[in-house]
Amino acid sequence: MLLPDIIEYAARKNPDKPALYFEDTVVTFSELLTRLRRLANGLLTVAAPGDRVAVLSENRAEYIDLYYGVPAAKMGLTFLNYRLNPKELTKIVNDAGARVLVTEDKYLDTVASIIEDTPSVETVLVMGGGSDRFVDYGDFLAAAPDTPLDVEVDEDDLAWLIYTSGTTGMPKGAMLSHRNLLMSTLNAAVNGIAEPDQVTLFPWPLCHVAGYVFPICHLLSAPVVLMRAFETESFFAHIQRYRVTNASMAPTMMNMLLDHPKIGDYDLSSVRVLGYGAAPMPVEVLRRSMERFPSAGFGTGFGMTELSGNVFSFPDEAHQAALAGDVSVLQSVGQQLPLSCVRIVDEDMNDVAVGDVGELVVQGDQVTMGYWGNPDATADAFAGGWFHSGDLAKWDGAGNCYIVDRKKDMIITGGENVYSREVEEVLYKHPAVAEAAIVGVPDVNWGENVVAVVQKRTGTDVTETELIAFCKDNLASYKKPKRVVFLDELPRNAAGKILKRELRDQLKT
């Protein structure tokens, strides 16, 4: 089975059912099948099987054509984060060797500024028109036939090429095959994460691996409501307009929703499930969320780009059991999904004991084929035959997994290990803290100092001294921040993750 087969099957079973809602556009499964076939057939006239097709765009309906249509042509869809600057985009396009670049009219100036420095690009397609220099995307589709594809595609062919977010360094291209994405989709589906009658709201950027929500829902012929970009009041309006049953968000997004003054002005009663992910959810934010949406089930998981999606699930029943008993379990990402194979190991690849911290490693068909053009990074990531996530984690006696920290984010101060998430959890308990990040800054005497970077909640005030004392009251003294830096906004990537690398760089200067 191939990724576009999901739409082939859905179009046979439910041709007139909506697959996608976007603003005033409704795309049925039969229409989506026609579009992806036209796109794939058109691409085969300007590129060859095995080539890469890059996309630079914010969320829009045509992006979903690319999700399925590019892999249908035996080509790799290369995701470009629209928040990157032209130099970063140039580097990724050249690294991927993209032969076709698809963009939208909003980014025409950006594309024009990099096209001379990206010699592999031979064809530029523009969604939304507005260009005399490049090819109009709509015209390109209209000129191509909607007949079945005459190309042999294998499950192990590259389908998506997603460059890692680069929170700790320059991004690497994670190669995801049809097999990788389908296994991740099935892993979620067999766990009951999607239901045929649900209507799912998608606020994430489509250049993020979170987009695997589309094949999960489409596998069951369920529609997805796509937002162009996340915005709090628009999020509420989309739920009310489309009677959304399922929605997911990053903890940062949830925090913004809870603090929005108009949250009570919209009918949100259709919501049955609220999911969260992409970054650790502070327990205090989660408790506030569950109080605000008492009739909704909550769920989370854990995954990453290189895993094509999630490998852990912490469903609503586990959340409710935790609230009725041990609240600390809410810090868990749950248990392994049915088709996941996960271990927590020490430096010698030995399994650690329950309660001990080690690195999370993964095996299975949803694990990336490796990093594009980077055999050294691939070999390092798969040392010992397992994919090394770079996350420090531990098990409890019930089989729940706790992500303690990113391996590169762990701070060693005076010979003691400090896990940034533990300190962040304490800071989130303070009523004046809206967002918090703990980073290590080099120190001659201690090796590293613990530094807190904090965004204050609107209408509140707190001093550095007060926050350090608050942490000291709740943590061992060596774990408390030696410094607190206040920012109006913390830097984040497109998925909402706080960019600790940028914070460390700022604090060094």
List the helices and strands and how they pair.
Layout lengths: L4 H9 L4 E5 L2 E4 H18 L5 E5 L5 H11 L3 E5 L5 H11 L3 E5 L3 H7 L8 E5 L7 E2 H6 L15 E6 L9 E5 H12 L10 E3 L10 H7 L4 E3 L5 H11 L3 E4 L1 H9 L13 E4 L6 H10 L4 E8 L4 E6 L1 H9 L10 E2 L4 E5 L12 E6 L6 E2 L3 H7 L5 E9 L5 E6 L4 E3 L2 E3 L1 H9 L4 E11 L3 E10 L7 H11 L8 E4 L13 H9 L1
Parallel strand pairs: 1-11, 3-4, 3-5, 4-8, 5-6, 6-7, 10-11, 10-12, 12-13, 13-14, 25-26
Antiparallel strand pairs: 1-2, 8-9, 9-19, 14-15, 15-16, 17-18, 18-20, 20-21, 22-23, 24-25
* Number of separate helices: 16
Strand arrangement across the biggest beta sheet = 2-1-11-10-12-13-14-15-16
Query: At the fourth CATH level, what is the homologous superfamily of the largest domain?
Result: ANL, N-terminal domain
Query: What is the name of the CATH topology of the largest domain?
Result: Rossmann fold
Rg for CA atoms: 23 Å
Are there runs of 5+ residues with pLDDT below 50, and where?
Answer: none
* Mean pLDDT over the full residue set: 91
What is the makeup of the main sheet?
Answer: 9 strands, mixed
What is the SS-derived class?
alpha/beta
Give a concise summary:
Helix content is 31%, strand content 26%.
Task: Give a verbal description of the structure.
Strand 1 (18-22) and strand 2 (25-28) form a beta hairpin. Helices cover 31% and strands 26% of the residues. The chain is an alpha/beta fold. The protein folds into three domains: 29-176, Rossmann fold; 230-406, ANL, N-terminal domain (Rossmann fold); 410-508, ANL, C-terminal domain (GMP Synthetase, Chain A, domain 3, 2-Layer Sandwich), CATH 3.30.300.
